[in-house]
């Protein structure tokens, strides 16, 4: 039920990039944009276009931990890649 127009409706759901998304975007842009688990979800009434609610995804510690591990591996990989590159060019 929509509280505005009192019609029995199915809310229109829109995914919006939240603060959490923007922070993660800085580190793992493509990965985060592909799966939208950090995005805020807005519910809209399809009749009167009123926003009925926003569901903010909780910043799960497990997700943060996984991303942290992913970043560490990525940084180590970049360092190793840079090292092998410099060796290659130096001789
Ligand atoms: Zn409505």
From TrEMBL:
It is a peripheral membrane protein. The chain crosses the membrane at residues 20-38, 59-83. Residues 1-57 form the LITAF domain. Its main location: membrane. The keyword Ion transport does not apply. One of its GO terms (molecular function) is zinc ion binding. Pfam families: zf-LITAF-like. Keywords: Membrane, Metal-binding, Transmembrane, Transmembrane helix, Zinc. GO terms for cellular component: late endosome membrane; lysosomal membrane. It is found in: Endosome membrane; Late endosome membrane; Lysosome membrane. The keyword Transmembrane helix applies. PANTHER family: FI16602P1-RELATED (PTHR23292:SF6), LIPOPOLYSACCHARIDE-INDUCED TUMOR NECROSIS FACTOR-ALPHA FACTOR (PTHR23292). Belongs to the CDIP1/LITAF family. This is LITAF domain-containing protein. It comes from Acrobeloides nanus.
